[in-house]
Amino acid sequence: MKIIQEDQSLEEGDDRAGNNYHGEYVEEDFIEQAVVEVSVAVKGNEVLFDPPLEETHEHLLNCLTAIIQHNQRIPRVEKLLFPGAN
């Protein structure tokens, strides 16, 4: 293990640099595209959502359910390390 002294500077591209970046920080560079986009419109006394909130809710629940089901198929680490143990 190599220990870096305080007076040593890290070079750009060095994995140990962490949050050490050069130049101006631009937050927009790190914003990712939205997973879900819902348009909102007001028509009279009603607020309308497109796609409807119920549909959006259902799709998000289906996604989370699928993620959980797939993760449950991944073998636990202790089962791989200790195959004979319960």
Backbone structural class: alpha+beta
What is the makeup of the main sheet? 2 strands, antiparallel
Low-confidence stretches: none
| Rounded mean pLDDT score | 81
Spatial extent as radius of gyration? 24 Å
Region (Disordered): 1-22
Please describe what this structure looks like.
By secondary structure, the chain is of the alpha+beta class. The protein has a domain at 52-86. The protein has helices at residues 53-72, 77-81; strands at 39-43, 46-50. A two-stranded antiparallel ribbon has the order 1-2. Strand 1 and strand 2 form a beta hairpin.
SSE topology sketch:
Layout: E1 39-43, E2 46-50, H1 53-72, H2 77-81
Antiparallel strand pairs: 1-2
Defining traits:
2 helices, 12% strand, two-stranded antiparallel ribbon
Question: How would you concisely characterize the structure shown here?
Answer:
The chain is α+β, with helices and mostly antiparallel strands and 86 residues long. Helices cover 29% and strands 12% of the residues. The protein has two helices and two strands; from the N terminus they run ββαα.
